[in-house]
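$ fold --in a.seq
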Amino acid sequence: MPTEPSSVASLRDALTAESLARRFHETYEALAPNFGYETREESRKPWADVPPNNRALMVAVADVLLDEMEVERDD
């Protein structure tokens, strides 16, 4: 059985907001067709080629989520 990290802070140490956003983007793009969804042409590209504003938004969302998970874990 997989073990849960002792804290989200350790997850935060191992996973940056940018790496989470990149992995989410890559996984989302890979899985979307399995759900009958076609993603927008401008975002349907490798992470390095995603427009900077889109990339910055995804990193900001990942950063907020990591912060929220840390707070939830501390409760």
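$ fold --in b.seq
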Amino acid sequence: MDRWQLINKLATTSPSVRRAFMQKIGQAAPPNGAPANGAPAAAPPNGAQPPAGAAPQVDPQALIGGLGEAFSAEINAAATYATFSACATGSHREYLKSYWMEEAKEELGHAQIIGEKICVMGGQPAVQGIQPADVRTNSAMIQQALQMETQAVGLYAQLAQQAEQSGMHGLKVVIEEILADEQNHLDNTALMAQDLEHQDPNQSLATQVSGQFDSINNGGGGASRQSFPPAAQMAPSAPVAPAGPAPQPGPPPGPPQA
């Protein structure tokens, strides 16, 4: 127990004892650094560092700027994925068309949430520019999506930390929910890209998948579909001898012998 705790304890029992004790120990400064006579505490010198372990405060305008960057990135992602949906090719077009369109809708929903938070904080959401989508092949689309989702995960992780340092715990929860969605997008895109790392980048995804399927069949992997060589490579069958003349009917049977 320090002396100020002792003084407070004595004050609850006997004010006179406290006065006598104060006269004995002198006018000690209270724990917060304020003078004992009640004068306001002196301001800390310029350049004073915050206490050890304290998180640095984030400028609200800097946080609004980071949210604005996220808003622009979400609008950009929604436009890019909508373009991917329209330009998907090959035998897997219907699947890729639906997949990219669902991604576009989810990114647009993220932009709506982030835009509302910017407005609540006194800012104004704006789109800084739409990057062109790489639609040369399905593989190129996946690679661009992988890059975009990687950047999104890093950005939202930084924003969640800034929101926590600013004491905006509700905003932090919202950002972390979007971060979880972006991490799922990144994981799915990474799985889609794994089988394309050693493929020809100029080859479409549908052709690559079909080629992998054919190689499994040719290797006896147990696939249900059979593979046959092209007709031009099939060996000609042996000629078939022409059929001979049809047998003639014999004479009718004679009368029975006695």
